[in-house]
Amino acid sequence: MEKKPHFVRREFLPREVSSISLALLLVAVLLLNVLLYLYLNKFYNSLEHTEMDPSLCPFGHFKLGSVKNCSPWLSCEAINREVRKLKCVGEGAVKKVFLSEWKENKVVLSQLTNSELKEDFLHGLKMLKALQSKHVVRLLGYCEQQFTILTEYHPLGSLRGLNETLHIPKYKSMNTWHHRLMLAIDYVSVIRYLHSSPLGTLVMCDSNDLDKVLSQYLLTSDFHILVNDLDALPLVNRSAGRLVKCGHRELQGEFVAPEQRWPYGEDVPFKDDLMPPYDEKTDIWKIPDVSNFLLGHVEGSDIVRLHLFDIHAACKKKDPVERPSAREVLDTYRKVLTLLIREAAMPGTREML
Q1: pTM given for the model
Q2: SS3 content of the chain, % helix, strand, coil (to 5)
C-alpha cells in the first residue's frame, strides 16, 4: 500500500514563536515602564515634598541622630553647659568653626572672629532660622549675645572635597553619572528654593569663583547637598525697585555674570556708587560651571552634558532677562534624568521592536 504523506505545518512555527516572543517583549517593556513610573513617581514626590524641616519638627525645634522627639533650639545657657569643643576645623573672614560634641553627637559650633563683621554674622543667623528646610543645614541652637551658632555636623564636609570623597572605597559606587546628576539637581533645587524662599527672592552672593561656591555647600552622608553659609543673601524686590550688589569691590573673571563686572572699561576707575545693581539671574549664569564640576568625568557624564547643552547655553545668555529661571533649569534637569533612566532601563528596545 502506498503510504500517505504526513503533512506538518512547520512553516507556521516560526511565526507563532515570533508572535509569542513579541508578546513577551511587549509585556516586559510594559512592566519596565510601570516600574520606571513607580520609581520616578517616588523620586519626584521626594523632590517635591514640603520644604519644611524633613524631621517634621515645628519651627524652633530640631531632631538629631536617632532621637525620636523634637528638642527646642539650644539656648546660650544650654550651649555653654552642654556643648564641648573638640577642635577647630575651619576659619573664614567672619567666623571660626569648631567640631564639637553635644550629648554624644558630633555638632558644629561657629563663633564670630571679627567684630566688624557682626552684622554679617547676625544676618547669616537670621537667614538660617528663617530658611530651615530640606535644603539648608539644620540649626540646633544659637546665642546672639556671644555670637555663636550650633548646627548639625556632616562628616563629608563641603562640596570642594567631592572628587576625593568619591575615590574612597566606601563611596566609589556613587561615582556614576546618575548620582552626580542627582547632586546637580540638588544644587539647582537649592538655588530654586532661595529664589522663591519664604523671605522672597534671595541671591547667593558668596559665589565669586567656583571654589567659593563649593565651600558654601555641604555633602551629606546619603549624598545630598545642603547650603551651609547664608551670611551673604541679599533680597531682590522688583516691585519696590530693589536690586542687589554683591559686595562693594570690583568683581572680575568669567565665572561671575557679565552684569556683575565693571561696565565702563579699564579707563574709568571702579567706583561702587557707579556700579549698576543686578538680580538673581547672576546665580543662573553660574549653574553650568557648578554642574560641570558636579558631573565630573565618569562614563555617561558627557551624554548628560549633551542633553543639558541647550539649557546651559540659555543660562549663559549675556542679557540676564533672556536667561531661564531656576525653576525652568530644574525642570529641564529632571526631564533629562527621566529620559536617561528610561534609556538605561530599556537599551535597544526600539531596535528589538
Answers
A1: 0.84
A2: 45, 15, 35
Instruction: Return mean pLDDT, the chain.
Output: 88
Are residues 237 and 108 both part of a single domain? no
Would 232 be classed as within a structural domain? yes
- SS3 of residue 136 by DSSP: strand
CA distance 118 to 147: 8
What are the tens digits of pLDDT across the range 97-146?
Answer: 999 999 999 999 999 999 899 999 999 999 999 999 999 999 999 999 99
Is there a single domain that holds both residue 114 and residue 228? no
209 and 337 co-located in one domain: yes
Tell me whether residue 21 is in a domain. Answer: no
C-alpha 284/C-alpha 278 separation (Å) is 12
Q: Does any domain span residue 102?
A: yes
Q: Which residue has the higher pLDDT, 176 or 44?
A: 176
CA distances from residue 113 to 104, 110, 162, 172 in whole angstroms, order as listed: 27, 9, 28, 38
| Per-residue pLDDT tens digits for 201-243 | 999 999 999 999 999 999 999 999 999 999 999 999 988 889 9
CA angle 243, 290, 153 (to 5 degrees): 90
Mean pLDDT calculated for residue range 156-176: 96
For range 58-73, the mean pLDDT: 89
119 with 222, same domain: the answer is no
CA distance 251 to 255: 10
Q: Give DSSP secondary structure letters for 20-51.
A: HHHHHHHHHHHHHHHHHHHHHHHHHHHHHS-S
- Per-residue CA distances from 204 to 77, 106, 278 (Å): 33, 28, 12
Domain with 230, as residue range(s), is 154-345
Instruction: Report the distance separating Cα 271 and Cα 277, nearest Å.
Output: 13
Tell me, what CATH number does 148's domain have? 3.30.200.20
